[in-house]
Amino acid sequence: MSEQVRVRFAPSPTGHLHIGGARTALFNYLYARRQKGVLVLRLEDTDAERSTEDSARMILDDMKWLGLDWDEGPKVGGPYGPYRQSERLDLYRAQQERLLETGHAYYCFCPPELLESKRKQAMERGDAQPKYDGTCRTLPMPEARARAAAREPHTLRLKIPDSGSTVIHDRVRGTVVFENKIMDDFILVRTNGLPTYNFAVVADDAAMKITHIIRGDDHLSNTPRQICLYQALGERLPVFAHIPMIMGPDRSRLSKRHGATSVNAYAEDGYLPEAMINYLALLGWAFDDKTTLFTRQALIDKFSLKKVSKNAAIFDPAKLLWMNGVYIRSLSPEEYVKRALAELLKARLLSEPLDEPARAWAEKAALTVKEKIKRLAELPQSMAFYFGEEVECDEAARAKLEQAKEHPEVFKTLHAKMTVLKSFSIQALEALMQELITAADIKFGVLVHPLRAAITGRVNSPGIFEVLELLGQERTIKRLAAGLKSVGIEV
RNA sequence: GUCCCCAUCGUCUAGAGGCCUAGGACAUCGCUCUUUCAAGGCGACGACACGGGUUCGAAUCCCGUUGGGGACGCCA
Q1: Do the Cβ atoms of A240 and A219 come closer than 8 Å?
Q2: CA of A373 to C1' of B42 (A)
Q3: SS3 A323
Q4: Å separating the CA of residue A77 from the C1' of nucleotide B49
Q5: What are A170-197's pLDDT values in tens digits?
Q6: Which nucleotide C1' is nearest A114 CA?
């Protein structure tokens, strides 16, 4: 009760943080914060082939982008470091020695090719679970030690009890029982001397005093092995909580072929971390029957493992997109403008240095599309017409523009009056156009639609008056004249 | 194949034996607001996988079937 909760997120640095990993990290983060515990970040890089420094950096960046800060781990340190497995080899060596001494582990000299072929045969025969046949299990220790000392290639295996069962008391799955006899004497240390995943996790989780292991469902069947290892090591078992996996639309494990699956890809597409967090939280967890929008703090206040669901969830980009729109719209103007300008700079629609008037103008312009976009990355596209002198009409706009021919005089007058307008403001423009439609006895749309087409090159845009004001008199007149000319109306 | 897990609208889910004529959200489709497009408002469509039990009563408990997923590596 009084013991402090310690959870961990332990990705292997083999690429960007992906959706599934992010969700696991999030649940650990929320649980830690909710319980006023500690979140440890540990890099599982014992696979030297696949782990890269770049990946490590990217994962850390992705975590930061999401705002999932860790209390112990790379960059921040902590009392149980180092926090990458490649730097903890001494610890594993000490532990393996202990296991050897207590008789829980043994040397195995079986060559990998032999094991591989035996496994294949077993599979083909359609045998029960293929498992190590225990050839080296009964090797006398002195002999094994001598062979190992003579540099004969070997691995270390854990002796699994051949009878009885191992039971997991899982916080989300309940009680799960595995018969020990279906388990392998699995490898703890590879021929190259590096620990395997199962060995390193347990050694580290124990050493780092992890109290709760919250991780993907795919690890459930590893858990009995790990429990055996905890027991062999004489360590206390943590609480396990296996959260459901995230699948692609075809119900197979979410992977690259399902499109963007890395957190980073969403960051670049203009998703807000707040939206990502909110959406991810709802994948496998729900607070009640009504609430879908949660601030980070609300998530922390309300998160509980009891409410984590058991079934796998399909990742739905459409809902994420919707939610992102909600978050963009709910941004304060200041907050929004800050992010929007960064996006425009990135797209080179703006360039630094930005003087005050230019900045103020860009901010106003960006604000006009705030309600319309669902991703920040849509900004350059949706604001394109604000930039440059001329504008190119798309097909739909072309058609609208043609309609100006039905009232050529009105548009000529519009052009003439705009040219001499003293103050090119929303109010003045509105008054002017009001006057024109009244005089010509036409509907607002008859005037607005072709005008919009000529000015923005499209059939939809923010409010036309704001657009005109922002664009300014000169460019407006120029574009209007060009547009009218293109449909045969000379001004 | 063996072991393990899971099973409510197309999707994410609420639901711990009577509150369920099964609730919410996304998507879809209408209508509405409107100078356009979004957004918003209103509404529609839409699910307890199947079969047996248990019980006065089952989406909820038990068993089986089917379906999906995961694990079975000197990957993590």
Answers
A1: no
A2: 24
A3: helix
A4: 50
A5: 999 999 999 998 898 999 999 999 999 9
A6: B74
